[in-house]
Amino acid sequence: MSGWGAPRLAGRLLKVGWAAGKAAHGGRVRFVALTLASLVLTVGLLALACTAAVYDGRERRDLARSPLPAEAGTAAAVGLWAEGGDTLGGTPVTIVQVVPLDASAAPPPGLSRWPGPGEVFLSPALADRPAYEHVRTRYGRYAGRIGAAGIASPSELFAYVQPANADRHGDGWIKIAGFGGHTWSPLGERLNAWPLAQVLATVGGLTGLPCLALVVVAARCGSAARDRRSALLETLGAGRRHRALMTIGEASPPALLGVLAGGALIVPMMFVDVPLPVTGYVMGAFDIRAWAWAVPPVLISAFVIILLLAVGLHKVDRTGRATRPRSFASRVPKWRLAVFAVSVSGIVASSGVPGTTGLMLYIAATVVMWSALPSAAAAVGRRFGGRLATAGLRRGRAERLIAGRWIAAHPGVIVRLATALVIGLGLITQIQVWTSRLNEPARAAVETSKRVGDQVLIVDPAGASGAQVQRFLQGVPQGFETLRLTGGEGGPVTLTGTCAVLMSVRLNCGAQIWPASLNTGDARIQELVRWRAEDDRGLRIRAVPDADYAKMRDGSLVLIGSQRGEGWRVQQLSFAVFGVPADGLGIEYGGAAATLNRLGDWIVLFGGAGILVLLPAAATSAAAEFLQFGTALAPLAVQTERRSVYLRVALWNLTVPLWLATLIGGLVTACHGLFFVAQIQEGWFSWGVLGGAMTAAAVLALAIGVTGGVGAARAAGIWRPAND
């Protein structure tokens, strides 16, 4: 049987492998496991390809809509361009103001024409915002939607506006010769996007590692029968290539089925925009369709990876001392423990590496640590098994003797069973830590928004003419009062208003200081003091006659509303007169909080997907071990009629080692999470979340032990000797 052999022999070996897989004990479990693993791996690789497709399409469209500045003496200006912004529910909105100087010039990408004076074109996601936000009248007169060529993604909040009374000579305008300037991008959504490498690393770490864990568990599922078959083939003189062909014949049908099922899932995404759960982000079908060429290589790669792992995880000893396959049946390889130690060192070392490189090192070391941690737990479990067997022999406890020797002889079983539990603990903890990264100012901004909402708005009319200010003051909506806020930047901060307005917010007309520590009075002024008074001297209050107030030109305008939900009227007025938004208190930190919340949503999405992948990994591993466990313990039926012995052996053999793995995993995860919080100096570590996850893992371990014991007892009841 040396060499590859003739094609006829190769075909027979493939058929033998397929037939042996179906006839083997636990063959159905392995088929289902490999199919699921292939499906999940295919979906994971397609997710990486879709991520790259979205980034590629977004960059191309963003470059196409970026302004091309008109350089003096080289090109005629076709329009004026200025960039502004707004926030809706904490999500940034990009407001691009344009004024055409040449009506025949091509409009911005995605528009059929230039917006007229006072008109606004909105992206589909912005146009479809809830009616109570009044977006269609917030920035101007609604003229239509921006086409797909002019938006970064279907979920982007973007608008083109031509101010009704644009001051063409004011600050902020640039003359443009058209669109497609490669030096101006990014704009809009792409401005706040993560680098592609970080996103791919996050997807790979939170989702890819569970996918790989499922593949490895599936490849080793029902390994006892295949190990015996490989040993027999080795004894008969079969070479590595022949054994590989048989393994490929066994694994190819389920792997191909999973790959085709995963590939079928991508087809609808090429024709329909797909909203991602939790995040609200919408993937454009045009981006996925543009990368259709990448689907066949991804499917082939997934199929090849499954087969390579199936073959690579079933090697035999080439030393000549044994014919047993190398599945570390008696010990955990030392290199796995070394990998675990190196990964922990990498996590610690990442704190001293600045920027993106440090983050990438942290993510890579974390992934390696999680993948190696089950082996470390198995090494501890093997020592535990030896001591348990010794104690059982000394005290005459058969169940402890049997379980201890089984654990010591089969540490790989503990690795497969503990993989889902340990990686799941790590994922849950990382999700909690990442989503808690709100610093104190950001949390204060969120609390301020809860207390006063849009009842306190600040408009900065810097650069505006006196006529514009007067037009704004005359148009202030009913239910809002106006005050002037001046000073700051190290000097005293003064709030100026007429007596009538000051009294309406429970302030006296005489000169006074509203201390920052005072927690009584009007809640809206309290919040204003918290954010605008720069020291303990508080906010100076000054009353002026109506005529003097009307002549004031310096400072910002503070609008105090009588009820929530009416701030959109001020926003509409501010955009119509000044072309800028009215900001809420702490808006600069509220935006950061919203950004971190959105980041947390992505972490929850990827981590949640990883946890869902781990569920079939845990179920597959447990089902395979139940079959092997029940078969191995069945011969005890000739030694005892007590069925309780099977339950006790199962608890010691399956549950207790898993509890030990959970304890070790929880300890390592806690140190990992605390280190992360200390490193970034944001967020907090929740012992409650970790405790809940460990409790769930402990309950699952108990269920696995009980189920294994009951299954073994049933198998013993029907077992008959058959050439055993």
Let me know the largest β-sheet: 7 strands, mixed
What structural class do helix, strand and pairing data support?
alpha+beta
State the helix count: 22
Name the strands of the widest sheet in spatial order.
1-7-2-3-6-4-5
Fraction in helix: 55-70%
Radius of gyration: 34 Å
Strand content bin: 5-15%
| First-last Cα distance | 29 Å
The number of E-state strands comes to 16
Mean pLDDT across all amino acids: 78
What overall geometry do the principal axes of the alpha carbons give?
elongated
Point out poorly predicted stretches: 1-5, 317-329
Number of spatially distinct domains: 4
Structure commentary:
The chain has 724 residues and is α+β, with helices and mostly antiparallel strands. The chain folds into four domains: 193 residues, no CATH class; 118 residues, no CATH class; 236 residues, no CATH class; 151 residues, no CATH class. Helix content is 58%, strand content 11%. It is built from 22 helices and 16 strands. A seven-stranded mixed beta sheet has the order 1-7-2-3-6-4-5. β2 and β3 form a beta hairpin. α5 runs antiparallel to α13, α5 packs parallel to α20 and α13 runs parallel beside α21. The radius of gyration is 34 Å and the shape is elongated. The two termini are 29 Å apart.
